[in-house]
Amino acid sequence: MGEGLSxxxxxxxxxxxxxxxxxxxxxxxESMKQTxxxxxxxxxxxxxxxxxxxxxxxxxxxxxxxxxxLFDLITEQIFILKKIAETFGAKLHxxxxxxxxxxxxxxxxxxxxxxxxxxxxxxxxxxxxxxxxSYLISEAETLKLSTASETFADRSYQKDGSLxxxxxxxxxxxxxxxxxxxxxxMINEKTVRTITGxxxxxxxxxxxxxxxxxxAVDFAAQIRKTLIENHITIQTI
Length: 237
What we know:
With 237 residues, this protein is of the alpha/beta class. It contains eight helices and eight strands.
């Protein structure tokens, strides 16, 4: 959220935690302030969403990086949002890497460990949100950092548990019933059907919806309504 789109106010009442762009892949100081205010109004946990410094590609293009640069990239963005949150008397709850950086770290243990170390260096009480079953989770746990295994309501999966690259057909789930079915399966059965039809195990502690998705508000509303009807509590980790 806080990525310059017009649906933040519609999404915020439907969710329990928000990943807020820190001005590098999207957003600016004013958007961060507005999004934090919205989160506080709806009792939504505030999280930093650091990504590559690449607004022209929305942080979704993989870029070469060194570990020292990556460490600084993460800490800089956390401190930016942390400082703004503190002006409202608020604290950050979690950190979730964005876009290409998220996917790179999910499959590269060195990048994942560097991100986890950067998060821990700012505040060891932050929770790192990472792709379920990936290095983002295992490396953070190695550093004794709290984690939340993240799954996706609007993305399809490969048989190794990674997300289908956006460059491939079927990467984004466009049908509300398909999204809802995937969410319920991940929660109730702890599995997900891959884009090629395999059923693989998955640990769903938090479920992501991309705020820039064209169906984001509809998906979020449907999912929230169905979870409540099925007596599944929506709450901050």
